[in-house]
Amino acid sequence: MSAEVGVAGENAVPEAHWGGYTWAEAAGGRAVAQVLLDSALPQLDHLFDYAVPAEFAETIRVGQRVRVPFRSQSRKTFGYVIGFVERSEFGGELSPIADIVTEVPQLTPDVWRLARAVADRAGGSAGDILRLAIPTRQVRVEKKHLAALAEAAAAETPVANRPAQAPDPEPAAATSAPPETKIAAELVKGARLSHTASHSPERLHTGEWVGGWAAQLARVALGVFELGRSVILVTPDYRDLDQLRDALTALGHPDFVRVDSRQSNSERYASFLRALDPEPRVILGNRSAVYAPAFNLGAVVTWDDGDPVLAEPLAPYVHARDSALIRAEQSGAGLLFAGHVRSAEVQRLVDLGYVLAQVHPPRRTRVFHADAARAPDAFAGRVPEFAAQTIREGLKTGPVLVQVATPGYAPVAVCGDCGDLARCGSCAGPIGFRVVGRASCRWCGEYANAWRCGSCDSARLQERGMGSARTVEQFERQFAGVRVLLSDGEHPRERVDARPALVVATRGAEPLAAGGYRAVVLLDAERLLGIETLRAGEDCMRWWENAAALAAPDGMCLMASGGGPVVTAFVTGRSDEWLRGELRDRHALRYPPAVRVASVSGGSEEVARALETIAEIPGVDYLGPAPVPQQIGGNAGPGGGSRQAGGLSAHLVRAIVRFDYGHGAEVAKRLRGALVADAAGSNSRTRGRTPGRARPEALRLRFDDRGVFDG
Q1: Is 524 left (phi over 0), alpha (psi -120 to 50) or beta?
Q2: Which PANTHER family match (predicted)?
Q3: Boundary of a domain, candidates 65, 80, 107
């Protein structure tokens, strides 16, 4: 027997437990169950009617996972019970439900509503969202959990003797409460807030150091919990989760529920069952935590929503921020977007008045620009003299952080004879040096052992630029006798102690220092601002603010070089003003987030048919279709299509559809219809295709694609 499939009734839920799950609706004599199939096929993304056999009439519940026949009695698939009806509109004989996989109602009504709404907005399937929300069943874990519930139910305090739920705070009491308590009180009333966190780490009474933001959000979460409500905390990666874990534990609440991609299947399912229990929980996790079941949800808190890691890489590619907005609206829960700087999306919501910004400005690290202290005739290289002096001064009393743009040894390789940029012979990606003397493609990873220049046929490669490893090598010579540490994707460090050390880190990989860094030096501003992406400016603002926030309260941050509006806004602390100006420009040019976008890719005929379906919707325009650009990280095109030289997919095109938010539902509905029609009609066009492989020219949709305008 598999880890998921059990015998119906084998793990019966205790009666007291059913009483807690008041939403787990029974059939109540209704003979028809409506089931959502667990299928990736878009044409199956709707409810199917199945007969409820007499043997399941008393045990079947809404939200249960069941096994049902599909297309024939001998072929079975899985699905979730969404509801019951007296009779079916289907004219034929209904197939009966074959089995109840688990009597635990895994799918709550609020998570189902969320999955349906999120999928519809993104032109996707609800089943794809549910696969993120509901982990694979683990029978032993489930038995243990149900046994614990039965034991607790037997010793349960009668309802009449339980303490009453904490009431909302009175205005007079809230006035003198700590800021986090006030925020929590507003959230449980349904407020939608944007909070800019103060800089510098904070020491917990356990002796651990965490980012000040983690301590602040932990206090907010516990404030919501103490009011008798559940709270969901969503962060980009495991390092953020670890800091929140430490903060919650130090504040006396180690009994939180963690939803983490690094958990084992058993740990993940155990956490899911605890979140499913009918009692308030503090739930923290990565992007999929926004779909966790939560009893009496009071708030959804998202940290650093501008981080692209919060965008789901699997279809339908929904960002956790959008899911949080929908969940808060559906449930009436509060919503908090927190970060060291706002994302453009949150700034847009603030400008619309949909989200309220905090009134009091946060405490911020002192920021300087090296040019302000440089003599007019002084040499200004990658590490100007003032930056080197700042590093030396900081190292006298503690660690110093230096942020660099790229990992590896040298990010760029050029022809040693003609100077042309070296390109990979397999995928046309740029070649660089991850380690000394070993060139490889930065896209596909293939080594450039047999590389030859396409212009002069030379085989001589030359290093250009400074990666993190090469910077460490330079600093070991420049600051002799100093401990130099490296932190990047291949050499991650989560924490460093308070001893003097020069820490070189790539953006996003900066370790937390005990007590904070004495100085934070930001290199390579020009290179970061030159990244060919629409969001280079806001990404830089987020990278720099997050790095500056790691400084000690009396530390400083130095911008070593660079200029222009983004650098000026960062140095002066006026990121909000810059974001408003950026949004005005994007509104005039119809770029996101001023408008929504959807990429429609596939064969030229398939894309043309899809675009015809939205031609009459007002306020909709599109760019292209044009050949699909090379996708970083592989040589195959979408669905396995071949590549042409120069980084384009043979026979595949892409159009970028732009539309106003008010027309989003209609655009998604029509493009989804085109996708379903293309998938349903594909059988006649796939003769001779290798079984199990998708048609290369099959239609593909991606709404709100962050990288659709990247170079």
Answers
A1: left
A2: PRIMOSOMAL PROTEIN N
A3: 107
Evaluate whether residue 137 is within a structural domain.
no
285 lies in the same domain as 242: yes
Residue located via tokens 């996707």: 124
Give DSSP secondary structure letters for 427-473. Answer: T-PBEEEEETTEEEETTT--B-TT---TTT----EEEES--HHHHHH
Cβ burial of 57 (10 Å; 0-12, 13-18, 19+) is middle
Which two three-digit tokens encode residue 90? 């289907």
DSSP state of 508: T
Helix (H) or strand (E) holding 3: none
Domain assignment present for 663: yes
Residue in 230, 21, 210 with CA at minimum distance from that of residue 106: 21
Q: Is 274 within a domain?
A: yes
Can you read off the two tokens belonging to residue 193? Answer: 């807030």
**Tokens read off for 227:** 């009011």
Residue 443 lies in a domain: no
- Whether 658 and 604 have beta carbons less than 8 Å apart is answered as no
Count of domains observed in the chain: 4
Q: Among the listed ranges 141-155, 496-510, 525-539, which one has the minimum average pLDDT value? A: 141-155
Q: Give CA–CA dist 369/387, Å, rounded.
A: 9
pLDDT > 60? residue 422: yes
Q: Which CATH number does the domain housing residue 627 bear?
A: 3.30.70
Last residue of a domain, one of 563, 584, 605: 584
Residue reference for tokens 């002796």: 207
- 633-687, pLDDT tens digit by residue? 333 333 333 334 344 455 799 999 999 999 999 999 999 999 999 988 765 444 4
Q: Look at residue 680 in the predicted model and tell me its pLDDT.
A: 82
- Cα distances (Å, whole numbers) of residue 450 to 440, 482, 636: 11, 39, 22
Per the model's pLDDT, the better-predicted residue between 247 and 178 turns out to be 247
Angle between helices 664-680 and 109-121 (to 10 degrees): 90
Q: Are residues 578 and 605 in the same domain?
A: no
Residues 91 and 225 occupy one common structural domain: no
336 and 387 together in one domain: no
Q: Is the pLDDT of residue 585 over 90?
A: yes
Extract the tokens encoding 541.
Answer: 């603002």
What CA–CA distance (Å, rounded) separates 45 from 699? 17
Instruction: Assign 327 to helix, strand or coil.
Output: helix
In whole angstroms, give the CA distance from residue 188 to residue 106. 25
96 and 174 share one domain: no
Q: What is the CATH number of the domain that holds 383?
A: 3.40.50
**Token digits of residue 81:** 């019970």
Asked whether 231 and 224 are in contact (CB, 8 A), the reply is yes
**CA-wise closest residue to 673 among 708, 638, 703, 699:** 699
Q: Facing residues of 463 across strands?
A: 413
Q: Which residues constitute the domain of residue 549?
A: 366-411+465-584
In angstroms, the CA 479 to CA 502 distance is: 9
pTM of this prediction? 0.88
Asked whether the bond before 407 is cis by omega within 30 degrees of 0, the reply is no
Q: Give the confidence band of 540 by pLDDT, cuts at 50, 70, 90.
A: very high
Nearest residue to 44 via CA among 119, 133, 137, 110: 119
Q: Using the 8-state DSSP alphabet, how is residue 365 labeled?
A: -
Write out the DSSP string of 88-104: -S-SSPPPBP-EEEESS
